[in-house]
Design goal:
Shape: globular
Strand order of the largest sheet: 20-13-10-15-8-7-28
Structural class: mainly beta
CATH topology of the largest domain: Jelly Rolls
Number of strands: 28
Number of domains: 2
Strand content: 25-35%
Order of helices and strands: EEEEEEEEEEEEEEEEEEEEEEEEEHEEEH
Radius of gyration: 23 Å
Distance between the termini: 78 Å
Low-confidence stretches: none
CATH superfamily of the largest domain: Jelly Rolls
Length: 432
């Protein structure tokens, strides 16, 4: 028995939402009544410590057919062999690194979202992965006890079923699944590929706008949350979890998607990156990439984030007498970039959809020779329309340690360093 309601969403980032699939499933008062409506069980999930500030608290009350505790004991699982939590198997070189799109599972091989993940790198604040899958999750449910998952599809839609409802996500949209939430991912298009950031720090949140003012960047109303959609299904199922960097499996005789009503702030959500309102300069100079910040995980140090999620969306560059692509630079950050769609404006080729790169702390990088030559000769008075494109960045304040499997992958572009060869010496001390 199930509730197959038409796909609907609630909007507003971090809001205290309330959703019930049966009228009166949410108690009139009291989060844990002596007897919950419809014979349901009251259960709370907390994604933050109990004593954090109310504005930062993430918790949700669920009213479900059976408690989430109603499963067998966990045992070590032989699952997700390329999803790693350690990032120091080999020294990370300071070299700039770039990879071609990850291959889909080989013919005759079936891999779901979890088993299709490969870890590219990470550090104490996050793990960075790429997924390539061709099998929907059906008899298996997953939750991550180590962190929340920011999933960025690049190819193929995702049908994300969770305890709290369903989300349909397509390329150039993102979905965030909080720590501890049970979910399944279906693949309506067969093959699917994309990027995943596993956030070990504070839950992702919208940045303050500061001097930008009241509007701009990602708007809270564009973040969509699921409505309750319960199912009462018995069977032979598995719950798989990542707990303390290891995978564990438990048998369960019913679907855990049996939440009839819920209210709270700890819930999955999706966002369309095409709705991002880009901010920038209109007189001169080029803004730092933080101007494209969608979500961030703040640390205990003001102004320093454990993780920044940045989107390079379509935009208009109108700065006068300015080199408009991202300039040559070195900084303290570890930067992972992924191209979702179209052509990234700072690279002439080699960084098509599905490609990814790592540029680490204090390693010089920037536009390639062809991009520099083109930008140096463009009309600085005419606006530059960056259209039909979308790239993303996971940025951290420390080094992103590349895994051995990423460093040795056949997808790695061994000749990436060549894009910075061939710059001419134009210096002439007698001619300004």
């Amino acid at each position: 028995m199930s509730n197959n309601a038409t796909m609907r969403y609630m909007s507003g980032f971090g809001s205290e939402f309330a959703s019930e699939a049966l009228p009166g499933a949410l108690p009139d008062r009291g989060n844990s009544p002596q007897r919950a409506p419809y014979g349901l069980y009251a259960e709370q999930i907390n994604g933050t410590p109990f004593t954090v500030a109310r504005s930062a608290n993430r918790r949700t009350w669920m009213y479900r057919i059976r408690p989430a505790a109603s499963h067998r004991a966990f045992a070590p699982a032989n699952a997700a062999p390329r999803w790693l939590s350690g990032f120091s198997q080999v020294p990370t070189p300071p070299n700039r690194m770039r990879w071609n799109p990850w291959s889909m599972p080989a013919a005759g091989t079936s891999m779901d979202f979890v088993d299709g993940l490969t870890t590219v790198g990470g550090n104490a604040g996050c793990g960075i992965h790429v997924y390539a899958a061709n099998l929907s999750m059906e008899k298996r449910f997953f939750y991550n006890a180590d962190g929340e998952l920011l999933i960025v599809p690049q190819q193929g839609r995702l049908q994300v079923r969770t305890e709290l409802g369903r989300l349909e996500v397509e390329p150039r949209e993102i979905v965030v699944i909080p720590r501890g939430i049970h979910f399944q991912i279906g693949l309506p298009d067969g093959n699917a590929r994309g990027f995943v950031c596993e956030n070990f720090g504070a839950p992702l949140q919208l940045p303050t706008l500061g001097v930008i003012g009241s509007n701009g960047l990602a708007h809270p109303r564009d973040f969509l949350y699921p409505v309750a959609a319960w199912e009462d299904v018995d069977g032979d199922f598995e719950i798989l979890t990542k707990f303390d960097a290891h995978f564990w499996s438990a048998k369960i005789d019913h679907s855990p998607f049996d939440v009839v009503g819920w209210h709270g702030t700890h819930a999955p959500y999706k966002y369309d990156l095409r709705k991002f309102n880009v901010a920038g300069f209109i007189s001169y100079d080029h803004p730092d990439p933080c101007m494209n910040l969608v979500l961030h995980s703040p640390s205990a140090t003001p102004g320093v984030d454990t993780l920044d999620f940045i989107a390079f969306a379509p935009r208009v560059l109108a700065m006068q007498d300015t080199f408009r692509p991202p300039w040559f630079h070195r900084n303290v950050a570890g930067e992972f970039m992924g191209n979702l769609h179209g052509q990234y404006d700072a690279k002439a080729d080699g960084f098509g959809p599905g490609c990814m790169s790592i540029h680490n702390s204090m390693t010089a990088h920037g536009p390639d020779v062809a991009t520099f030559e083109k930008a140096s000769r463009s009309d600085p008075r005419a606006p530059d329309y960056i259209e039909d494109t979308m790239a993303i960045m996971f940025e951290t304040p420390v080094i992103i340690h590349a895994t051995q499997q990423a460093l040795e992958s056949p997808h790695r572009q061994a000749d990436y360093v060549d894009v910075w060869q061939g710059f001419k010496k134009n210096f002439d001390p007698d001619k300004r």
